[in-house]
Amino acid sequence: MPVVPLRADPDPRGGLVRWFDVDGDGRAEYAERLDAAGRIDGIAWDRDADGTPEDQVDLRTGPSGDARHLVLILDSVGYEAAMEAWRHGRMSLFPRPTRTIAPFPVMTDPCLTEFYGIGPCLAIESCYYDGRRLRDGYEVYARNEITSWHRFTDYAMAPLAHIPTYLWPRPWLDHELRRIQEGFSGSPADTYTGYCVGTSATGAILGRDGHRHALIRVDRFCRRMVHDARGQVCITLLSDHGHFLGESRRIALIDALRGMGYRVTDRLIRPGDVVVPEFGMVSCAAIHTASPGQVARDAVGIEGVELAAYRNLEGGVTVVGRGGTAVIIRSPAGGLRYLPRDGDPLCLRGVLDRLGADGRINADGAVDEQTWFQATADHDYPDAVCRLWRAFHGLVVHTPDVLLSLENGRHWGSATQNRMVRLIGVHGNLRAAGSSGFAATMAGELPPVVRLSELADTLRAAGVAIPGGVSGR
Fold first, then answer.
1. Predicted structure pTM score
2. DSSP-H helix ranges across 35-151
C-alpha cells in the first residue's frame, strides 16, 4: 500500500476520504474513508476517474459471514509501541489495541504454547537441560522439537532462518510479509495464520525506530490485504509478548557463579554442580541445581540480576530479591497466598492492603487468580504472583530449579550472538515492558487487558477462528 495518499478530501460526516494510486498508473482509483476518530470505516473504487466511486464497501458493521480471517502474530511487539502507532494514525483498521500479559519467563515458545492452550511447552527455550544432558539449542530448533505451536500456523519461518533475520531485519521482515500475502491469497482455507519473527529482530537490533518501521510496514500490509480482498477479510494482530527498548549489556553469570565456587557443567553429578543454558539473548536465565535455595540467594547478588525464584521443599515458590524474600503458596481452598518474609521483593504490600480493605482476601490469606490479575495488571511486575506460580507448575516440561529475572537493560545468553549483534531490545524478565504485548482485531473491540493464556478464548468470543485447546488454566 502506498505510504501516503495522492489526496485527502473532507468527508461530510467529519472525517476524511483518502485517495490512493494502488496500481501505479498515476491516478487515484482507491479510497479509504476515515471517520471523525480517524478509523477506516469504508473503502471505495473509482475506476474511471470520474470522481464517483463505482464500488463501495462499508466496514462499520464488521466483517460479513463470507469474510476470510487472517491472523498475524508479530514477535516481540510491545503494547506501548502498538499504542503509539495507533494514536499516530497507523493500524487504523482496528479498534484501540488491548494489552496482553505474557507468562514468565517471557519467551516465544512458552508464550505461544499458552496462547494456543496446548501446554506444557517442552522447555523455556531450545537450549535446555533434560535431566541427563544439556541439549544443543540449534539442534533442537533444527528439529522443531520446541515449537509445537507451529502446527497452528500456515506460515512460520524455519527456526534456523532466524539467524540472518537478526542480522538483516528489515528485508527479512518484508520477505515474511510477502510470503504471508502470497500464502493467504493462494489458500482456500477460511482462516490463515502467519507468524513474523522479523518484528522481534527489528526491535532487538534497531530499537524503537525498528518497531516503528515494522508497524508502519504491517499497517500498509493490512490495508493492502483489505484492498485485495475487497473488504472481505477480517484481520487480527497479536504479539507473543513485549520488548524493553533500550541498549542492553550481557551479565557475567557463569563467571560470577564460578567465582562463588560452583562448578558450571553440562550435567548434575556432584554437590555444587550447576547447569546454566545460554542461547538466546534475553533478560531471564535458568539454572539447574540440587541446591536451589542457596543458588538463588547467591545469584540475586550478581550485578544485573533483579529477582530469583525457586520451587521450595513444600511445593511453593520462594522469591528472592536484594531487599528480602517472599513465598507464594497455593491454598487448599483455591487462590494463591503471597507471604513477605523479611522483605517484599515483588512490592505487593500496598496491593495486599487494598485487597484486604476491600474484603477480597480469603480467610486463609489467599487471593483468587482473577483478583490477582485485576489488582496487579498495571504493576511494575504485572500479574507476578500467578506468573511465577505457573512458571514452576506446568508451564514447561523441563522446569529449571532456579529462574532469574534480570534488570531492564541487562541480558543473558550466547556469548557468540552477543559478539555478533548490539542488542537494543530485550525481553524475558518479569517487568511490564517485556511482559506487555498487544492484540487488535477488525472483529471488534477487546477488553482493555487480558492474559495471553486467555486471549484465544477472548478472540473466539469476538468471532475470530483461533485453533488449539481451551485457553486459561
1. 0.95
2. 79-87, 108-115, 137-142
